[in-house]
Specification:
838 residues, alpha/beta, Rossmann fold, 6 domains, 6-stranded mixed beta sheet, 25 strands
Length: 838
């Protein structure tokens, strides 16, 4: 029963005053009103305005609800029970759960439950967008089916988890006043619980376009004396220094003042907190950190990881002092391979804490209290799904990542708050930290397209941006003193000021300062922090080998020769020093798994088609063999590997006809599959030092035709690009190296290029006449002859390791140290050559 919404003009009355005036005019009783507003932080401002308006003569109406609380489950214990049940279901589904890690399953369950909760809210509406989305998306159809089944199967449980009206009286309110900032959840909630109660909506301003900023410029800078200041720092370090200095200036002026820091840039905020701490000023951080970032969470995570790896706890320390537990003996329950319910796991660890007095220590800390509360909730979970140690660790990590944590032991008048928490509130002094355009851009919803997400009550990227812009607008309009801090660059890259603030800067221009970069009406640059940033070219790093052969490895992989041909500095850092490990050991990258998958599929297909009786001249036979082998290889992968390589599986299905055609063509030409993944090794004697260096490698594929041999390498690159590269055959050293190591100077060298637009064999050109005149018989001999002399100079320290800026820098893991990206050669666009099959 929503009445005609009232659009509020922020330049006139405040939303609260407008609502109070409307109530008086409507003759509604103040005690019979339900107030609905955006965020919990708004309530204190609302109560103060209520008391001021009524001069303390009218008690506040029966209850208040906030949109941010309405979008959360009412109780975490039953929510955990549903999540545990759903994880048990998802891990049995091949499509949805088959490619997910343990922690991803818990995250997936969380997302599905949130969707199901929204479906319970919108059950009285026609959910057409979700149905249309499911019909046109095969993968989403199964997701939607899971969500719909959840909403139906757990309707009673989910309905019980919807936040209930906090009604202290026995009757419904006679009027509902809703301060609407664009969120749809309050409307859905009111339809469900108060379908027949009149709702008066006060539309909070949705600020879009330049016109509101023109009005703000006139109102704020011509009619109100309190200043709004813009400071632009050259970099993030100076930005944090300026923020700390502004706060210290305000405290020196009025030591008892309250200062709000509206945080959009977390990095600058952390640096500012450290600078203020050095000056003896603490900051009350109310932006909310994830529980997973607390020391207690790290301590408990370490315990669970130790248990999952060892099957017991053998090394336990106090959570805060780090001191080992006295007289501690290894502790475990059950066997490491066994599964237990969530309640059993939580009970065991709770009893372990109690036995060793760890619960008493944890009670003294806010994060410790949250950990004990989480274990207490898990102990009461009735779900019968059982989990092993790794899965319980994933459950804890998912919980810790989803919970907010704020230390409560800091009492300070300097408070950091999210920008959205400042709406409908007035501050005496406020610092806005981070005003770049990127700070106001929001990512789209994870599982759903924007239209579907909006129908289910999720804010889309556009609404989220408008909400932030509107909150900033009201902050500038209503607060007494505001300082906006913007960093012109972050991590060495330019950051554009929010366009709306650029509009405001244009409004504030006067005829005499049109040529200035910023309007002096509001722009201020602190004198001691004036830092002129001049662009300087970044020179590539130069190194040389360590003395006494300290850089010479025992062996070099043939694949490392690609680095050698591309960039000598990269080769030295990765294969000689060597460059430190860049990823966790055992965690394979997508590119590695993609290669393993294709090599294995092609090898198994070749073996299958070489059997007697196979129709090697029929394309359908080759296609079916490839599809069958791909499915077989996929079936043997672990869950984590499946999730990583899944995008390529879909791509490979698309190019199977082309691959089949090229393999059949190879067979028709008389080539017979001889072997794959063959290990080869050869000693390379460096000249003139005589030092021996082992070359090791693994040949992708070998084919034979009579006495002839063909050596092949699979490349995820457009064959057209491969042909261009072979204009200089030694720039592609792998195949020539294998030719020399196998002592087959007449062997044919071929690439099999796999790309979304083309699949083809690409052969090396014949040896040039120039090299034949020098006595060489193959590209392999030319390569090893050159390597023996060049590597000797390289490892002896006689040659400087220099970067070779160009295509070699694309995706190079050493580039962050080398830093030659300012060179124009690196900005050439090579897109379309590589196999961008994702």
């Amino acid at each position: 029963m929503t009445q005609q919404p009232i659009a509020l003009d922020p330049l006139l009355e405040s939303p609260f005053q407008s609502a109070f005036a409307w109530l008086e005019q409507a003759g509604s009783g103040f005690a019979d009103v339900l107030w609905v507003m955006p965020r919990i932080e708004t309530v204190s401002s609302f109560k103060r305005c209520w008391a001021q308006h009524h001069h303390g003569q009218a008690s506040l109406g029966p209850w208040v609800q906030t949109a941010d609380r309405l979008s959360q489950p009412a109780a975490m214990g039953p929510w955990l029970a549903l999540q545990a049940d759903l994880v048990g279901v998802l891990r049995e589904l091949a499509l949805l759960g088959g490619g997910s890690s343990r922690m991803q399953l818990w995250g997936l369950a969380q997302e599905y439950l949130e969707l199901a909760l929204r479906q319970v809210l919108v059950q009285k509406r026609n959910s057409t967008a979700l149905a249309e989305y499911s019909n046109h998306n095969a993968f989403a159809a199964e997701e939607a089916q899971v969500v719909a089944t959840l909403a139906q199967t757990y309707h009673t449980e989910l309905a019980a988890l919807l936040p209930k009206p906090a009604v202290p009286l026995t009757h419904n309110p006679k009027t509902i006043v809703w301060f609407d900032d664009g969120e749809t959840v309050p409307g859905l909630w009111l339809e469900l619980f108060y379908p027949n109660v009149p709702v008066q909506v006060f539309k909070l301003p949705a600020v879009e376009g330049p016109i509101p900023w023109q009005k703000l410029g006139k109102k704020r800078f011509e009619q109100q004396p309190s200043p709004v200041v813009l400071q632009v720092a050259p970099d993030e370090t100076t930005q944090a220094q300026q923020a700390a200095r502004q706060i210290l200036d305000w405290l020196n002026t009025d030591p008892n003042t309250e200062i709000a820091v509206a945080v959009l840039d977390r990095l600058a905020a952390r640096r500012m907190v450290g600078l203020l701490a050095d000056a003896g000023v603490l900051v009350d951080d109310r932006t909310g950190w994830r529980l997973s970032t607390s020391n207690v969470a790290g301590w408990f995570d370490h315990l669970l990881q130790q248990y999952a790896e060892q099957g017991q706890l053998s090394d336990v320390t106090q959570p805060f002092t780090g001191q080992p537990l006295e007289h501690f003996e290894p502790w475990a329950f059950g066997k490491i391979s066994e599964r237990y319910t969530l309640a059993k796991w939580a009970t065991s660890f709770s009893e372990f804490f109690s036995r060793h007095g760890l619960d008493e220590a944890l009670q003294q800390d806010e994060a410790g209290q949250q950990l004990l509360t989480a274990l207490g909730l898990m102990r009461q979970v009735p779900a019968q799904t059982e989990f092993d140690a790794d899965e319980f660790l994933a459950a804890w990590r998912s919980w810790a990542e989803s919970q907010r944590f704020r230390p409560l032991d800091i009492e300070s008048s300097v408070r950091m708050v999210p920008l959205l928490s400042t709406r409908m509130r007035q501050f005496k002094r406020v610092l806005v930290l981070g005003c770049a355009q990127s700070h106001f851009q929001e990512s789209p919803p994870g599982l759903l397209p924007p239209a579907v997400a909006q129908e289910l009550g999720f804010p889309g990227p556009r609404l989220a941006r408008i909400q932030k812009i509107s909150a900033l607008y009201e902050l500038l309009l209503r607060s007494d003193q505001v300082t906006l801090l913007h960093s012109a660059q972050v991590a060495g890259k330019p950051e554009m000021l929010l366009p709306e603030l650029t509009w405001l800067d244009i409004v504030l221009r006067r005829a005499e300062n049109l040529d200035l970069h910023w309007s002096p009406t509001w722009h201020h640059q602190p004198a001691p922090l004036e830092i002129e940033v001049r662009e300087q070219p970044e020179l590539p790093l130069n190194l040389s080998a360590l003395g006494n052969g300290g850089s010479l490895p025992e062996s070099v992989r043939v694949t490392a020769l690609d680095d050698w041909a591309a960039c000598r500095l990269r080769f030295g850092l990765k294969h000689a020093l060597p460059w430190p490990q860049q990823r966790e050991e055992g965690a394979m990258r997508y590119e590695q798994l993609r290669g393993i998958f294709v090599h294995k599929v092609l090898e198994k297909t070749a073996q299958h088609m070489s059997q007697a009786g196979q129709a090697v001249n029929q394309l359908e036979a080759w296609k079916q063999a490839l599809l069958d082998q791909a499915q077989a290889v996929w079936g043997k992968l672990g869950q984590d590997d499946r999730a990583t390589v899944y995008p390529f599986l879909k791509f490979f299905d698309q190019i199977v006809p082309r691959v089949a055609g090229k393999l059949m063509e190879r067979q028709i030409q008389g080539w017979q599959f001889k072997g794959a993944e063959q290990q080869v090794e050869n000693a390379l004697v460096l000249q003139p030092s005589g030092t021996s260096l082992a070359l090791k490698g693994r040949v992708d594929r070998l084919d034979a035709r009579g006495d002839a041999l063909a050596i092949s390498d699979i490349k995820f690159t457009n064959p057209t690009a491969l042909k261009k590269r072979l204009a200089d055959p030694l720039s592609q050293p792998q195949l020539p190296a294998y030719q020399a190591m196998l002592r087959s100077p007449n062997a044919q060298l071929d690439f099999l290029g796999l790309h979304k637009d083309n699949v083809d064999w690409v052969s090396f050109p014949p040896l040039s006449d120039e090299h034949r005149e020098q006595g060489f018989e193959s590209w392999g001999e030319v390569l090893l002859s050159a390597l023996s002399h060049e590597l000797d100079t390289f490892f002896s320290g006689k040659a400087v390791w220099q970067a070779n800026p160009g295509d070699a820098c694309e995706w190079c893991s050493v580039r962050g140290v080398c830093r030659p990206e300012s060179r124009s050669e690196l900005n050439e666009n090579t897109a379309g050559e590589e196999g961008d099959d994702e």
